[in-house]
Amino acid sequence: MLIAYDQLLSFTNAIFQAIGCPDSDARTAATALLSADLRGIDSHGVARLIGYVRLQEAGRANPRPNVRIIHETPSTAVVDGDSGLGLVVAPFAMQVAIEKAEKVGTGWVSVQNSNHFGIAGYHALKAVEKEMIGIAMTNASALVAPTFSVERLLGTNPICVAVPAGEEPPFVADLATTTAANGKLEILQRTGKPAPLGWIQDKDGNPSTNPHELKTGGALLPLGGDRDHGSHKGYALGAVVDILSAVLSGANYGPWVPPFPAYVPMPTGMPGKGIGHFFGAMRVDAFRPAADFKQHMDNWIRRFRCATPAPGHEKVLIPGDPEREMEAERLSQGIPLLPAVVEDLQSLAKKLNVEFPS
Amino acid sequence: MLIAYDQLLSFTNAIFQAIGCPDSDARTAATALLSADLRGIDSHGVARLIGYVRLQEAGRANPRPNVRIIHETPSTAVVDGDSGLGLVVAPFAMQVAIEKAEKVGTGWVSVQNSNHFGIAGYHALKAVEKEMIGIAMTNASALVAPTFSVERLLGTNPICVAVPAGEEPPFVADLATTTAANGKLEILQRTGKPAPLGWIQDKDGNPSTNPHELKTGGALLPLGGDRDHGSHKGYALGAVVDILSAVLSGANYGPWVPPFPAYVPMPTGMPGKGIGHFFGAMRVDAFRPAADFKQHMDNWIRRFRCATPAPGHEKVLIPGDPEREMEAERLSQGIPLLPAVVEDLQSLAKKLNVEFPS
User: Fold this and answer.
1) Closest Cα in chain A to B312
2) Closest A-chain CA to B106
3) B135: left (phi over 0), alpha (psi -120 to 50) or beta
């Protein structure tokens, strides 16, 4: 099923209103959530709407949070999300980072007591609109085993760095710190195809190609896959995200990060509050005149875009290219929804008395 | 040959003095350079001393630079290294970042017109001494092909994030954004062993295990190795380092970064000055009380350190563990030097009339 973006946005907005979000928060959350569908990261978009509703029903997400700064300096802040939806808390925190950058050059905000925030790229790009470099990261519940371990201690912990250019579109590096994001594994689960070696291990730490391995104690692997191919680097990067997002803010970290599915029990002995995020905004003109920066960024992008491709490949991509092309296509042609997702949305519509577009 | 750290430091200091560095700069450079040998990153330590001397002889490194801030805001600066040794320029820039963090919570410094700075970890750890999170990165001459390309457009572009703890030693993630650092390839070249698949490609973009491939147009591969294993993520991370270090500062980027070996011709059409670095310092108490942060950082480290190891592995490591253990060992037992390195150092000693310890 193909559905127009505007229709899906109105529907998602209405669902968030129906679970008790104030109007402006509902709009913020719906826009942030659907940015994933627009950019082709279907695993993090409207397919998760029912998951957010269940978090609210389970009392794990607060539809009317008092999101606030609990500590700050001229260039930093810690934000308490008051158990709100990350889709609402994260835009607040990114705005704080941007306002600090306007005053002192850069702004850095660590967030506690939040929930999942959708895709990192949406938040980082908010800074790009203001001629700033935007940085966004979040921790997530533990699915990833550190190098040499059989225990799941880290989330897929994504990092996004988004950089404005001049005539060229922005550079957007948006990546899970694992070999493959969980969403890619979900696709293999649905299609019954094996995963490449290096994505997952079984419960005993052996390499596996079974995409269902996580259901029986297996784990995703850090970017690199194994030690010979640099998995200790992916582990270190995922750890940095965890520390900046949660140890710095007072959120939960490592194996104590609350799970997204509301039916999964909360970890015991949690050392912090909710899940954590980290945001940064750096004004490019805090370093050099914006016009100079943009001219050189255009030059960077054009040089890489015209790099000689390897045989069998058409061109070299700039980070952010595939998502931007997808966004243009889906804005004009609509967003494709899998039958299972449509069923979920129809059941939500019925339960919450919201009309689902047909 | 084993040589005591203090002896090697005095010798290295004398060499830098002999090529015209002021006394305090020589000491700074020698200490930064040998931190690589202490931490076991032999490819970046005293083995490169002759390379730094040759850069100075070729007029590419200025032994008496006027290193200075050319632009700043309360939380940012751009430093012009005046073609100085990165081993001198980087400590200056990191100190600027630390001083800004003392005043406004964080400090961020991008550097142009520099040369190679040794290992990123040394600089990032300077912030840790002040109860700050330290960040250091640098670009380097192009050896790495972006995903889908046969052209070398990025350096091994390392990132270090160093985090203070309480009773535990600091967390230090220090990683090249490639599958394997160039130093590891050099070891295989010397021993004649093949490289694992995923480290390098040949000039046509085919996977290769020949560690000499770079001499005939091959390239190192971004962390991930190939597209299925996330090489687009390693490419994106290396690109972020290049942009923050050079597009932000006015240094050279991409294929235009000057080479370390003085005999390699400079690239043509260079868009900036020298090579670029990027440094950050974040006071932990700009986010939460330092005692709270350190207690939770200790908790983080202890939880990961006691993770269940996979069969065949003794324990799970915390990023920074191997280098710190190596440092303790080499401080007490001395630094091992390969015969080829000893020969280089002896020839330097003779030419510059400095006594080499025997």
Assistant:
1) A148
2) A75
3) beta
Strand order in the sheet with A106-114: A68-73, A76-80, A106-114, A275-283, A132-138, A159-163, A171-175
Domain ranges of chain A: 62-286
Question: Searching chain A, which residue's CA lies closest to the CA of residue B206?
Answer: A310
Under an 8 A CB cutoff, do A249 and B287 touch? yes
| Each residue's pLDDT expressed in tens, for chain A with a length of 358 residues | 999 999 999 999 999 999 999 999 999 999 999 999 999 999 899 999 999 999 999 999 999 999 999 999 999 999 999 999 999 999 999 999 999 999 999 999 999 999 999 999 999 999 999 999 999 999 999 999 999 999 999 999 999 999 999 999 999 999 999 999 888 888 898 888 999 999 999 999 999 999 999 999 999 999 999 999 999 999 999 999 999 999 999 999 999 999 999 999 999 999 999 999 999 999 999 999 999 999 999 999 999 999 999 999 999 999 999 999 999 999 999 999 999 999 999 999 999 999 999 7
How many Å apart are CA A115 and CA A327, to the nearest integer? 25
Domain at B65-286: CATH code: 3.30.1370.60
Answer yes or no: do A284 and B171 touch at CB < 8 A. no
Q: For residue B144, what is the DSSP state?
A: B
Nearest-by-Cβ selection for A304 from B110, B153, B315: B153
Q: Can you read off the two tokens belonging to residue A293?
A: 């920066």
- Region A62-286: CATH code: 3.30.1370.60
CA distance B82 to chain A (A): 17
Contact A303 B254 (CB under 8 A): yes
Q: Please state the ipTM of this predicted complex.
A: 0.98
Decide: B185 and B165 in contact? Cβ < 8 Å: no
